Amino acid sequence: MFKLPVAASILLGIASVSAAEYTLHSFKKIQLSDQFWGEGANFGDFNHDGKMDIISGPYWYEGPDYKQRHEYYPANKFFTHKKTDGTEEKIPGFEGALGINNAYSDNFFSFVYDFNQDGWPDILIYGFPGLDASWYENPKGREGHWQRHQIFDVVDNESPAFADVNGDGKPDIVCNSGGYFGYATADWSNPAKPWKFHPISPKGNWQRFTHGLGVGDANGDARVDILEAGGWWEQPASLANDPAWKFHSFPFAPGHGSSQMFAYDVNGDGKNDVVTALSAHGYGLAWFEQVGENGEIAFKKHIILNEQNGKDKPAPDAYGVVFSQLHAVDLIDMDGDGLKDIITGKRFWAHGHNGPDPDSDTSAVLYWFQLVRTGNGRVDFIPHLIDDNSGVGTQVVAGNIQNTKFPDIVVGNKKGTFVFLHETKKTSKAEWQKAQPKPDAKTAAADQALPK
Question: How far apart are CA 284 and CA 195, in angstroms?
Fold first, then answer.
């Protein structure tokens, strides 16, 4: 694979095609930091200058060049971990993790929201799995650390979400906590108060390191359901008095568990399907087509990236792509064709150098998979390599940071903090066709022979 310098333009052969024009998409890579402060990143206009800034770990970086950074909470090189017996331990530094074998962070997810509705975006952090959720209040341009509001004590699951579950138009904390699936809501008259947890399931064995969670309407009733590796929880008609939600068992990711999960109509038949990685610490990416079976919702698996079968590394897909550690996934329309595409990549050193995960030390790739509907309900996901020296963390976020038409991407992980700025170029049909990823005939034949 090729190697790219910081702030390099990464050319991709990507389709945004109409009858009159052809567009090539590329990304300009900017590395904001080479140190490990968090497994996630996000963006918002924190200083009200009309430019989007980047947040990862204890810092926010001023756009548009991201050279000036600001510390909004103490950038300690350790974090405090509360054990089950109530005592605390300090886990040593996670700065510059390329020199540390098994370092972790106290910052797994970053979200941006104006909690107190003062017009200035605040920052929500989910810490190490099993720790708290806290939001940091934007001081409206003043320097110094932001006031921290700890709103929820235990956020379990390695892919918790921040989304509107109850339909009030405001986001909720969606996670496991205390052995339950559920969501926590704010008293929006005082969002700094502790949030209330609403369990949706019976108590089970779900814990801090449970993998796989998503929020979306699985059954088309216009109510948000909760997806998990072993099935989905159907939201009832009323949430009064916190009723138990109906569970529909299905093995989306029956092994170690997945990462972020999505309900989306992939093939355009009017029914939402499920998009998910098959193992956050292994191999595999798939979409599950919603089908009817005896009057009930069922799903049919369609492989995008091959999963592991036994001890051997899986075969590449038809385009020659195979990588492990798909610990973060986003779903967004990358090329403006109205269809949502998949962004994912390799979480580098999820459990440290020479860790137990397969291919832990191989290139930290970042891809987007372009959804193409080929007719008769069939689809293809065409892989486009964005970078091979960044990857993802436990979170990857795409949105309009500098490009107002096509999404940019932010990443925070053990390799540092990165932003990929989306660029486009009008081109000829011949140049566009030359740039397109092409399936290898032999690999494609082998891939087609695999069970789907």
Answer: 36
